[in-house]
Design brief:
The complex is a heterodimer. By secondary structure, chain A is of the alpha/beta class. Helices cover about 35% and strands about 15% of the residues of chain A. Chain A folds into two domains: about 10-115 and about 200-215, 3-Layer(aba) Sandwich (Peroxisomal Thiolase, Chain A, domain 1); about 120-200 and about 225-375, Peroxisomal Thiolase, Chain A, domain 1, CATH 3.40.47. Chain A has a nine-stranded mixed β-sheet. The longest helix of chain A is centred in the middle third of the chain and has 19 residues, at about 155-175. The N and C termini of chain A lie close together (about 10 Å). Chain B is α/β, with parallel strands linked by helices. In chain B, about 35% of the residues lie in helices and about 20% in strands. Chain B contains twelve helices and eleven strands. Classes of the chains: A alpha/beta, B alpha/beta.
């Protein structure tokens, strides 16, 4: 662990599917922030700094962080914004605590669905000359990734479908009384209808703290940051082999190196992977060292990553259950922090001490992050 | 706090201008990156992480346009994230890069970005979209009338006149004329400013910053890395951010906690940065400042917030020439934001210029003997403020 001090997560609020029209986006941010503070047993007065992540195109505002100053308690506080990805807000918040110059950080991300067309908003993220007119949106990028894998891995279509089904099944345990029923996404060759889940509104908040703050307040249920890695691939899809995930390999190498992970399947008790499609999860298995592609069919078939398997993946139901597009990455981190804290509720994995969270965002997972949380302070996994 | 320092070891900036038809957006980023790496005598492969500096996506017409800059900053399969705090983005990016190093995560980090404000059509059309769509956007608000309202309040509270505002422009244009990278370098007179047309009373055309295109980049490293490689550096000794309310109306009541005339949160950020740097008397201990001031009137409340004088006294002291190059504390010796505003990197350039000043490398606009300086950035609707103290 290279950090000056080891950050720990002491509070989370995960709202992966917000229904109804009775609360404005500002109120959703306020509610989620207050819920995370309450979970940590602190108030906004205890917060030294804030990092938020939001997306101008989805929010329909330029500099969308501006609106959040009030709801997340940013007035008269040090607040920064990482619009590149919700997981990046956690990374920057963790780095700030790790400097020993901040005792606490609040991290918040949200993803609304008021845009008249989310695919249109996503298309604005494609370069204006070559990709935008394809048209390229996130579903198209996932489809291209699926096609790349189908081209190189025989039988992957059925394996990917089983992965997605596994996660949706997990979702029924995590949310026996769901706030809304997940709606299947449209087909986009070679992805069939239902291979993705339609976007929903979501919001997530996490509270990070320094060891001295945690000791002073007597926090017991802490998810200590053991290691984190993050990396990006090239922007131009033509420059990438969409059937591989080299940025995630780099991110995993960073995180595992910090955390002392050498045998991830044996050392992790639980994992959350950004599963926009079953193919996304399979690619992540390989890049994270959980399972190479030649073993995908066997390991998915024998239930290694199912809720009662050796390494349960996506006990929350993952993105296949709820897809608040922009904040799915930070939700994966919060889910694992909660698992390690013993606060995961209906989908708590008994005895989870060490967990892995993966966040992938952008077209065909351009941005990748891997974060390792553990229950014991200072200890390696 | 840790005693190990974070140093600035490389700086790159474009020669800013209204248009750069010869360079695409990523080309501009790369231009600054190459200059910064050459300055640091390092390669892209040496960079362990990149903090990408980009304010509103709409300014370059691409959603999450940082993605298209990944190769320009050499970040493929490396740590990479983007910062956006509006106009403060550049200084927030330097701060984020600082945290990468100060946390121990990295030894050497690149922060870079660019903007093509001069080619975006009309920045005020984009910036109108920063406001609440229901209440404020239709007024219509833009950053010029937003800060015009600040000017009116500053006039009322402290006696600033339109001629005083003109003096700021005259000073900064004179200083920009000595800075080869500045966009507006033509010397103007008070009469020129007073004769220019009103944009949003009392702000006139020559009280306004230009719409600039160009890039900026900086390389930051740990003290250990710098000493082991015997690199030249200047040091970030204090930094902080602070935010105000989103709602302008909350700053313009009878007795608002943060009056729109002033820069309340900039004051807080400066105080916190000074405290971290061990500065107790800024008026005596700070030798040079680059204070983000896109309109002439805002330089006054920035000087007040930096505590170079009592609140409101900056008007009188500026008339006396105390903030000129050669004066007591030169403010914006580069010409500042008033003469160059490529929004995504403008606040980074403030930090870069202070670094060059305390390094003794500012060339024709060098403030003699400067060893300690402060840079600031403002973003949102005069809402996000960042301050960084840099020392030789």
């Amino acid at each position: 662990m290279p950090y000056k001090v080891q950050p720990g997560v002491i509070g989370c609020a995960i709202r992966p599917a917000i229904t109804g029209q009775d609360r404005s986006l500002e109120e959703v941010q306020y509610d989620t922030t207050q819920q995370a503070l309450a979970d940590a047993g602190i108030t906004i007065e205890d917060i030294d700094g804030i990092v938020v992540a939001c997306n101008d195109q989805l929010d329909g505002r330029a500099i969308s962080v501006m609106m959040s100053s009030g709801p997340v308690g940013g007035v008269d506080r040090d607040i920064l914004s990482t619009p590149s990805g919700s997981e990046h807000a956690f990374i920057l918040g963790a780095l700030r605590v790790a400097t020993a110059q901040f005792r606490t950080q609040l991290v918040v991300a949200w993803s609304p669905t008021e845009a008249s067309s989310i695919p249109e908003a996503e298309r604005l993220g494609a370069d204006p000359y070559f990709h935008r007119r394809l048209p390229l949106d996130e579903l198209s990028a996932h489809a291209l990734q699926a096609a790349a894998l189908q081209h190189t891995v025989p039988g992957v279509r059925d394996v990917a479908a089983r992965v997605a089904a596994k996660n949706r099944r997990h979702g029924t345990f995590a949310y026996p009384d769901p706030p809304l029923r997940p709606q299947p996404g449209p087909a986009r060759w070679p992805l069939e209808a239902g291979a993705t889940t339609l976007p929903v509104t979501g919001c997530v908040a996490m509270i990070l703290a320094s060891p001295d703050f945690i000791a002073e307040r007597g926090h017991r249920d802490v998810a200590w940051l053991r290691g984190m890695g993050w990396a990006t691939e090239a922007s131009f899809l033509g420059d990438r082999d969409l059937g591989t995930a080299p940025a995630l390999e780099a991110a995993a190498q960073q995180a595992y190196g910090e955390a002392g992970i050498t045998d991830p399947v044996a050392q992790f008790d639980v994992a959350e992977i950004t599963d926009a499609t079953g193919y996304s999860e399979l690619l992540a298995y390989e890049a994270l060292g959980l399972c190479g592609r030649k073993d995908w069919a066997a390991r998915v078939g024998d239930g290694t990553f199912a809720r009662d398997g050796r390494l349960p993946v996506n006990l929350s139901g993952g993105v296949q259950t709820f897809n608040p597009v922009f904040c799915t990455g930070l939700i994966r981190l919060a889910e694992i922090a909660n698992q390690v804290r013993g606060h995961a509720g209906a989908h708590q994995h008994k005895g989870a001490k060490t967990g892995l969270a993966h966040a992938g965002s952008g077209f065909a997972m351009q941005y990748q992050a891997a974060v390792v949380f553990g229950r014991e302070q200072g200890a390696r996994a | 706090m840790s005693t190990e320092r974070v140093g600035i070891i490389g700086i790159g900036q474009s020669k800013f201008t209204a248009r750069r038809d010869d360079a695409s957006y990523p080309d501009l980023v790369r231009e600054a990156v190459v200059l910064a790496l050459n300055d640091a005598k390092l390669d892209l492969d040496d960079m362990q992480a990149v903090v990408y500096s980009l304010s509103p996506d709409a300014m370059v017409g691409i959603g999450n346009a940082e993605r298209s800059g990944v190769d320009a900053v050499g970040a493929r399969n490396k740590r990479f994230l983007r910062i956006n705090t509006g106009g403060a983005t550049g200084i927030s990016s330097v701060a984020a890069a600082y945290y990468h190093v100060a946390s121990g995560a990295c030894d050497v980090v690149l922060t870079a970005g660019a903007d093509k404000v001069g080619e975006c059509g009309d920045s005020q059309t984009v910036l109108n979209k920063i406001w609440d769509p229901t209440y404020e956007r239709q007024l219509p608000l833009g950053t010029i009338n937003m800060l015009g309202m600040s000017a009116v309040r500053y006039m009322q509270h402290y006696g600033m006149t339109e001629e005083d505002m003109a003096l700021v422009t005259v000073k900064n244009r004179r200083q920009a004329a000595r800075n080869p990278n500045a966009h507006l370098r033509k010397i103007v007179t008070v009469e020129d400013v007073m004769a220019s047309r009103y944009i949003a009373w009392p702000v006139k055309l020559l009280d306004c910053c230009p719409q600039s295109s160009g890039g900026g980049a900086m390389v930051l490293a740990s003290e250990k890395y710098i000493k082991e490689r015997k690199l030249e550096a200047v040091w970030i000794t204090g930094l902080a951010h602070c935010s105000e309310s989103y709602w302008l109306g909350d700053r313009m009541g009878k007795e608002p906690e943060a009056d729109h005339a002033d820069a309340f949160a900039l004051g807080r950020a400066c105080q916190r940065a000074y405290k971290m740097a061990g500065i107790t008397d800024p008026a005596k201990q700070v030798h040079v400042a680059e204070l983000y001031s896109p309109f002439s009137n805002t330089e006054f409340h920035a000087i007040d917030a930096a505590e170079f004088c009592k609140r409101g006294e900056s008007v009188k002291l500026l008339r006396e020439g105390q903030f000129e190059l050669g004066g007591r504390i030169p403010v914006n010796p580069s010409g500042g934001t008033l003469c160059t505003n490529a929004i995504a990197v403008t606040a980074m350039i403030r930090a870069a210029e202070v670094a060059l000043q305390v390094w003794g490398r500012a060339g024709e606009h060098q403030a003699k003997g400067a060893r300690v300086g402060i840079a600031s950035g403002n973003g949102g609707d005069h809402q996000f403020f960042g301050a960084i103290v840099i020392e030789a």
